[in-house]
């Protein structure tokens, strides 16, 4: 991984070495790193006092922080980002890790979600973090759409696909809906839907609503527009996001602040509401991406890091993603190739199974 930053450019060789060794030591132990620890591994013989001065400069630049009253330092989010972009050495996938991943994908699970569930378990076990696997959404053409009123604040949309697959999705409709407006909304959608997948329908809906705004009853239009996000994102159901290995995040002794961070992360994972954003994180760039702390839109409040990679179907279209989430002191150099290889194998599996 390579990259430059103003902070990186401002460092001399000694500062870079101190910074790199400090972050590596922190990622290994999770503890603040002191100057005496660093003196033992420096390429040139320097005093602890000299290293302390360098550490103070790095802290002033926003790359290091002093937790509590400790004499040691830990990297900040900015420091971790600079380390990942400029110093991280990504290791090769070990034969042991490769074998565990391949063994999982060779399981006899009859359905894709079942097989991806096994992948999630293996990924969390190998990395000792929590794994996230976003399964592909149903991409068959739509045959029919129906709205059913359940209560003033709850409605059901029934999606019938050309391959016989049926999905029922509960959502909150705009207030004031009537049987008439629901019929009109369904008729409007069915006129557009036949032969199109959900993804294609969503794009067409936006254009048609804009073009025919005056022709569509206001209530029906509100119902269709309120479902725009539903059709292609959250409507794909929270079950699309498989989370495994939460307990791995509790294996290390943690202070009260760390436990609170993990609790917030658990709450985020439990809600699973933002699976579309999870896929967006992967779609924004090819290959493995690393999100540290507040860079991560989904879990920013929990101060966690996410390593994520998309996987593609036979048409080279991104249909899902795999990732590992854990504390910011993840072993990035080892986890990156694991996530990358898993995503490639899952993509091949999805392609082979159609």
Automatic annotation (TrEMBL):
Entry keyword Repressor? yes
Q: Which residues form the Winged helix-turn-helix transcription repressor HrcA DNA-binding domain?
A: 11-76
Give the matching InterPro entries: HrcA (IPR002571), HrcA_C (IPR021153), WHTH_HrcA_DNA-bd (IPR005104)
| Entry annotated with the keyword Repressor | yes
Which domain of life does the protein's organism represent?
Bacteria
What are the UniProt keywords, alphabetically? Repressor, Stress response, Transcription, Transcription regulation
Q: Where is the Heat-inducible transcription repressor HrcA C-terminal domain?
A: 115-336
Q: Which family does it belong to?
A: Belongs to the HrcA family.
Output the HAMAP family linked to this UniProt entry.
HrcA (MF_00081)
Function of the protein: Negative regulator of class I heat shock genes (grpE-dnaK-dnaJ and groELS operons). Prevents heat-shock induction of these operons.
UniProt-recorded name of the protein? Heat-inducible transcription repressor HrcA
Q: Organism, per UniProt? A: Maritimibacter dapengensis
């Amino acid at each position: 991984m390579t990259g430059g930053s103003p902070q990186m450019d401002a460092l001399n060789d000694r500062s870079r070495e101190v910074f790199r060794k400090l972050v590596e030591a922190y990622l290994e132990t999770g503890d603040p790193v002191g100057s005496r620890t660093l003196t033992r591994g420096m390429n040139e013989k320097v005093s602890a006092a000299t290293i302390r001065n360098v550490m103070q400069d790095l802290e002033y630049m926003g790359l290091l922080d002093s937790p509590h009253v400790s004499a040691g330092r830990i990297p900040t989010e900015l420091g971790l980002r600079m380390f990942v972009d400029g110093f991280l050495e990504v290791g090769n996938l070990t034969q042991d890790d490769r074998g565990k991943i391949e063994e999982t994908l060779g399981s006899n699970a009859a359905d894709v979600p079942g097989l991806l569930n096994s992948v999630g378990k293996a990924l969390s076990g190998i990395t000792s973090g929590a794994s996230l696997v976003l399964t592909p959404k149903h991409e068959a053409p739509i045959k029919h759409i129906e709205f059913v009123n359940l209560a003033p604040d709850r409605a059901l949309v029934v999606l019938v696909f050309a391959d016989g697959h049926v999905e029922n999705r509960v959502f909150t409709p705009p207030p004031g809906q009537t049987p008439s407006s629901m019929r009109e909304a369904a008729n409007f959608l069915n006129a557009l839907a036949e032969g199109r997948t959900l993804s294609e329908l969503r794009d067409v809906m936006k254009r048609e609503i804009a073009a025919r705004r005056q022709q569509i009853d206001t209530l029906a239009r509100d119902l269709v527009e309120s479902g725009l996000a539903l059709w292609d994102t959250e409507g794909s159901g929270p079950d699309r996001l498989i989370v495994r290995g939460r307990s791995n995040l509790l294996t290390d002794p943690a202070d009260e602040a760390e436990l609170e961070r993990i609790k917030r992360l658990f709450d985020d994972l439990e809600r699973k509401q933002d699976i579309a954003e999870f896929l967006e994180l992967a779609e924004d760039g090819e290959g493995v991406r690393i999100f540290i702390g507040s860079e991560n839109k989904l879990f920013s409040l929990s101060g966690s890091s996410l390593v994520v990679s998309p996987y593609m179907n036979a048409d080279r279209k991104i249909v899902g993603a795999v990732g590992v989430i854990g504390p910011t002191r993840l072993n990035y150099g080892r986890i990156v190739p694991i996530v990358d290889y898993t995503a490639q194998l899952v993509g091949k599996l999805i392609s082979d199974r159609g």
